[in-house]
Amino acid sequence: MAQLSKTYSPKEAEEKWYSYWEIHNLFHAKANPDKKPYTIVIPPPNITGILTMGHVLNNTIQDVLVRWKRMQGYETLWMPGTDHAGIATQNVVEKSLLKEGKTRHDLGRAKFLEVVWKWKEQYGNTIIKQLKKLGTSCDWERERFTMDEELSEAVQEVFIRLFNKGLIYRGKYIINWCPKDHTAISDDEVNHIEQNGHLWFIKYPIVDSTDYAIVATTRPETMLGDTAVCVNPNDERYKHLIGKNVKLPLTDRVIPIIADDFVDPLFGTGMVKVTPAHDPNDYWIGQRHNLPQINIFDISANLNENAPIRYQKRDRFEIRREVVKDLESLGLLLKIEAHTNAVGRCYRCDTIIEPYLSDQWFVKMKPLAEPALKVVLDGTLKFHPDRWVKVYEHWMTNIRDWCISRQLWWGHRIPVWYCTCDGCDHLSASKTEPKEKCPKCGCHQYRQDEDVLDTWASSWLWPFSTLGWYKDNSDLRYFYPTDTLVTGPDIIFFWVARMVMAGIEFTKEIPLPDGSPRTENKDIVPFRNVYFTSIIRDAQGRKMSKSLGNSPDPLDVIAEYGADALRFTVLYLAPLGQDVLYSNEKCELGRNFANKIWNAGRFLQMNANQIIDFKFQISNSINDAYSDLADRWILSRLNTTISEMTNALDNFYINDATKILYDFIWHDYCDWYLEMIKTRLYGDEPDVVKKAVLNRAIYIYEQALMLLHPFMPFVTEEIWQSLAERTEGESIMISQFPVANEKWIDKETEADGLFMQNLVNAIRTIRGELEVPPSKEINIILNFHDTEREQHLQKYESYLKRLTRTKMVTLLRDSQKPRHSASAVVDNVEIFIPLEGLINLKAECERIQREIDRVRGLYTSTEKKLTNESFVSKAPKEVVDHERNKLESFKITLQKLEKNLESIS
RNA sequence: GGGUGGUUAGCUCAGCUGGUUAGAGCGCACGGUUCACAUCCGUGAGGUCGUAGGUUCAAAUCCUAUACUACCCACCA
């Protein structure tokens, strides 16, 4: 065995073993008909991204699943890659251009894209490098990018198929316009944030009358684009006004008063100004009533030439103030009320979005959503935790068409070609410029649509485009569908839902590995399970954000505590689907745990060095030669742990798994078992016994390392490699994950071990409370009643001595308490500790009295239950019997305690 | 306006289909240089399980209502 240093130092081990794994190609997956596949696709991080705590949690969970399944013998593929992130990336590059005083228009489209690609080559891989530091076992050979040629072709293919199927259409609609990014964004990319605003009541003079129509609005500046005033047709107050006209203040326009059911008579004045070009509701009212649409903004939401000249070319919010002022001076502002409303903001840059009328491309979603909802409702595809099903269902049943065009340059250009002849409106979808003549006008001249597609129009294909779809190939056949998707619930609509739709729509054609067609839903859903991760917050429960400066840099944490510590801590803290309050100091938990395991390894190693010719026998099985309670107990605990842990992982209770393992390793293995075997390792046993004991201890240790490996890959590899002679290329990564063996699970032995621990604890308590110096050796007397107990007690003797620093253990049957001794009762066995000269009689009296009070409390409450007629008659017999046994045991304990109290002096 | 989660020790959280004395980690107090580990070991203090009802022999656990808190969805000007 290689020598281990006193504490575990992560840095070196992390670098060493990560490159070892890569050199030996252990992350690579190959279609293998002899093994079952297990596939996870990474949620592709943006190329502009840097590693956050959210990524740490997300990717550690994936790595745990992947390493675990790999060790279980699956052909395991973790597909990595990055996302081109249209708006984000274009913004970053434009910003750096701006530093040189240039805009993208100065460069032109082709040159600008060149610059973006260059940027991507230089910086786009940052997050991937950071992920490697975390220990992620992705198949890097297969790394993909959403704008790779193959993936781009898949995007075009999908567009064309949907187009030809009539599921894609183009039209002038009110969309969400970001005046900063100068692009449309989809409904889901708008965050509605409540804010305090105002409700302005404006008087519109009615033509041929001295009366006014009074409208309430939150956006007075849009009145410049009003083309009607609207009331509810059933509103008695205003019926007489329908059909009349009002003079639109600040303009020279006259607009009609119309009636529409949309108007709520109870809100505001019951009269609404209608601005079809700048409000989605007004847009639909306008459609119904054939109203003109007057667009008053340019692409930056400055007022355009349709506004009165004095307002033109100025910002919308500046004009809001000015319009209000102007109305006021005209005496047309009735009042202002405080009003909170939800304002839509761009999810990328937080700019207030403008409902804007423009030509965009849309995907009809209803036909895609229906089957995608079904597979989730019928359980073909499972959500963890499953409460997200409701959220998903609500969105799917109320789904709206997806605006997929973006007025950007960085992205997949829409594969639509327009005939350039005057008056010919023909268009066609194809990957390259059409070669044939325009079927309508016969010309050859085409130009491609200027817009690009929403970034999600490539990510929704990720689970199969990364495997080479649309071309049939053996990897796609073998690894698709994937098994588990691990992602945050914040992108359930953006990404998860759309992937389900795309998977179902586009993968039926791919044959199964045996060549048979995919007919069942389970073979075309993109994944069978979705694990929705927690959201990591800071210690005060606030969201991590750049502006708050409360997001720790995971790389700093790795440098300080180690990657394993970070991984383990985050998992330990993150229950399925619950938010996590995180701070760096919490990583002490993981660091200390890593160190604990490390030192257990050192302990084994030092003992191995003590025994001449000792060599650890690597073996997949274990025997019970020269075994005693400690061995049988720990073997039972080990196998119980394996089974509980596997069960937890099967159900995605990953943090349960970490707790189960932590408790086993720290408490069962280190605190009790290792302490217990010291008796034999340090005693006069012959070497053959010592060897057997140590071999077993190492075997169990190795099993624990394997259980722990998915969570803490580096430290486990480092120790595992040093446990025995390993050949080059061997790794704990590809060892066999332990399987619980029922043969070793023995509840009686576990109870036995627990009884022994209780005895030890009772003695330690006495020592502690009576302040017997730890260095002082004591003698103990165990007073028992039945023979069976005697046999047990004899077996424990050596353990009791070591664990409680006891010189002599005397077993007595039905004896009296010696003078000047402390006492305790455990499971009807009395412990007497003669403490001549050491005992503080008063303290001991108080201690026993407290114990008596406690047990009497238990006795009384149990007695109360049993004297309750209805409890005895209605509760199940086992429960009643159990209470009776308890009562009896409490009674005996009480008697003994009281007797001991009397004879204290 | 609808929906979802949380509310248990000073802090962060476990407590599954109701049934021993409601647990852990951190923190705190006290004591420890025993040959793996002070990133450690031992002992201890600390909780009427948000509130009010209900079901039951039995409720932290199930039901109803309610408060507080966080988040999501929604076209109310």
Helix content: 40-55%
Radius of gyration: 37 Å
Mean pLDDT: 89
Q: Counting H and I runs of at least 4 residues, what is the number of helices?
A: 27
Largest sheet: 4 strands, antiparallel
The order of strands across the largest sheet is: 6-5-14-16
Describe the structure.
- The protein has 905 residues and is of the alpha/beta class.
- The protein is 43% helix and 17% strand.
- The chain contains 27 helices and 29 strands.
- The strands form 10 sheets. It has a 4-stranded antiparallel β-sheet with strand order 6-5-14-16.
- Helix 10 packs antiparallel against helix 11 (388-397) and helix 18 (588-610) packs antiparallel against helix 21.
- It starts with 9 loop residues before the first helix and ends with a helix.
- 40% of the residues are buried.
- It binds one RNA strand of 77 nucleotides through strand 8, strand 12, helix 8, helix 11 and strand 25.
